[in-house]
Amino acid sequence: MRAPVDPTPSEPEGAPRGDFLVGFSATFRLEIAEALRSRWFAVYAAVFFGLIGVLLVFGLTESRVLGFTGLSRTLVTYIQLTMAILPIFILISTVRSLAGDREAGVFEYVLGLPVGIGAWYSGRFVGRFVLAASPVVAALIAAVVYGVVRGVKVPWLELGFDIGLVMVMILAFVGLGFLISALSRSVDTAQTIAFILWIGLVLALDLVLLGALIRGRLAIEGVVAIAMLNPLQVFRTGSMLLFDPQLVLLGPTAFTVFDVFGRVGFMVWSFVYPATLGLLTAGLGFLVFRRGDLP
Amino acid sequence: MIRLDGLAKSFGGVRVLDGIDLEVPVGERIALIGSNGAGKTTLFRCLLGEYTHDGTVEIAGRAPRKHRTEVLRLVGFVPQVAPRLEMPVGALMRYVADVAGAEVEAMAAVADRLGLDVSAIARRPFVRLSGGMKQKLLIALALGRPTRLLILDEPTANLDPAARAVFFDLLVERAAGSTMIVSSHRIDEIAGLVNRVIELERGRIVLDDTVSDAGALGSSFAVSIETARREPSFARAALDWGLVESEADRWTGAIAGPDRLRFLGFVARHAGLVRSVAMTETTRAGETVG
User: Fold this and answer.
1) Which helix (H) or strand (E) holds A283?
2) Residues 162 to 181 of B: which have CB under 8 A from any A CB?
3) Residues A293/A128, Cβ–Cβ less than 8 Å
4) Cα(A227)–Cα(A233) distance, rounded to whole angstroms?
């Protein structure tokens, strides 16, 4: 059988319209197809479905903790646990994927194909975002379906708000992961930077900052600024806002939050800031990546 | 087709390409040879627009770094080391076809000619294939789409003789309009494929010569070997070369012209066993040349 290949294409023309979309959608599909077969994604999805399952098993309606009951309580617990697991999971899996591909010769081959760097980069970015977000949101939806079936009251407003917050936090950390990957030439370096970043963000959470404040090591304005620029803290505070409108759980810090932003202002900030951070870092990563040697 | 003007590339303080000037007309087939670290792979990556560099690189009048998709649509590339792609074979083929505007069926047909049934491995991750299967698939992805420049980095390293013969046939079919650069550590591996040899040493061109050679691309040789006794290791290797034992201790068959030096290497390794050897250049129809 002879291959029906015409080996002589025409002279090169300008980039055809739709080139970007073709490259973007092909790369996006490939990112999804590859992840669906990978172990990290299976573990990642299992963690979040397991988490929500455990929370449902251990009392959907029966108990009351800090004033929260039923599905609200499950959501609050889930969101707080998500904050502990999600960022490090996203950072490590993203930098391992990208920096690992560079080390494995994948960049040399794939970027030797006629796909634009922008289309390829954004296809991978969006693919990674969808992969990171889908198990978290799907587990939440599963909890809601379970709650509805059990006849439990669903806090729709809080649920929608928290899903949005989870999405922008994921966006922030996928963006940071892409920037770290663009700056690193090896998996080891990328993982180390990702881990140090995560540790730094955890150290800049309210409880640690409060300790620094009490010891008089930092001015209150500095503490608040650090907290409000920490995507983990923004998520943590934002996710409490609807369930706990006075932020009683945060203690005196709540006064500062309300003084600086106001309630609505902080709700807007908790969406806009992580989303901007994610897009800016991803964009910066793209500029770094495009300017240097690709493989 | 290719124009390099003062191409230079450094990593840290090390100058890997050191002011390369080169013109490659359409249709030329170049062997790029040189030892490890001579700069072959770096040169390829500059041609593919993957490395920043000093000097000028143009393919079909355009800079690959600046006009990636337009230029790379003309280029088929087979890397020296197969990438560790986790994706299934089917997804990889679909991806290459999508971004290159090609047909999966055409790539599958080339793979089929190389002895690789892609339908049987479509769901298998690329990284799990054997070295030979990876090489065949990468060749199929490069040759199964319309390109005008082939960049082949040690393309036959993992191929068996039968697949190599088909690979040479595939190159013959596109020889007229295509330009080709093949790299190798050893000139005997690729001498029959090319009409020009360029040797790199420490990032500089130290040899640029044309090749006019019998046994070039498209030719084949009828071979006959008589051995002093039957040796299992020789028999296995002979079968790999597609030879048959036509009578006791006499092996006959045909080999691709570009493979003749490699074949003579095989004979040399069994010199103590070989009583006689004959090679006659033939046409594809089997008629003796000259």
Assistant:
1) helix A263-291
2) 170, 173-174, 177-178
3) no
4) 6
What is the ipTM metric for this complex?
0.80
**DSSP character for B264?**
H
Single out the residue of B49, B140, B50 nearest to residue B92, CA to CA: B140
d(CA B235, CA B227): 10
Say which residues have a Cβ less than 8 Å from residue A280's Cβ, sequence separation at least 6. Answer: A175
State the Cα–Cα distance between residues B112 and A1, nearest whole angstrom: 8
Distance in angstroms (rounded) separating the CA atoms of residues A267 and A260: 12
Residue A144's contacts (CB-CB under 8 Å, 6 or more residues apart) are A71, A154, A159
**Hey, what are A35's tokens?**
């992840």
Its pTM stands at: 0.82
**Chain-chain contact of B178 with A8 (C-beta, under 8 angstroms):** yes
- What does the buried/exposed string (b/e) look like for A125-156 if buried means 16 or more CB atoms within 10 Å of the residue's CB? bbbbbebbbbbbbebbeebbebbeeeebebbe
Phi, psi of B225 (to 5 degrees): -130, 130
Measured distance CA(A127)–CA(A31) in Å, rounded: 6
**pLDDT average, residue stretch B101-129:** 93
A-chain CB neighbours of B74 within 8 Å are 9, 12
Q: To the nearest whole percent, how much of chain A has pLDDT over 70?
A: 82
Of the candidates B253, B228, B227, the one whose C-alpha atom is nearest the C-alpha of residue B242 is B253
Secondary structure (3-state) at B20 = strand
Residues forming a β-bridge with B196: B30, B210
| pLDDT tens digit sequence for A52-68 | 888 877 765 555 554 55
Give the SS3 label for residue A207: helix
Distance, CA of B38 to CA of B19 (rounded, Å): 13
User: B101: which chain A residues are within 8 Å (Cβ-Cβ)?
Assistant: 22, 114
Q: Are strands B2-11 and B54-59 parallel, antiparallel or unpaired?
A: antiparallel
Closest C-alpha among B69, B116, B122 to residue B94: B122
| Reduced DSSP (H G I as helix, E B as strand, rest coil) percent helix, strand, coil of chain A, to 5 | 75, 0, 25
pLDDT surpassing 50 at residue B268:
yes
Query: Is it the case that residue B118 has pLDDT exceeding 60?
Result: yes
The amino acid present at A125, given as its one-letter code, is: F
Q: Give the model's pLDDT for residue B179.
A: 92
User: Residue A1: which of B73, B99, B109 has the nearest Cβ?
Assistant: B109
Q: What separation, in Å, do the N-terminal and C-terminal C-alpha atoms of chain A show?
A: 36
Residue type, B53: H
Q: Nearest CA to CA, how far is A38 from chain B (Å)?
A: 8
Is the CB of A112 less than 8 angstroms away from the CB of B79? yes
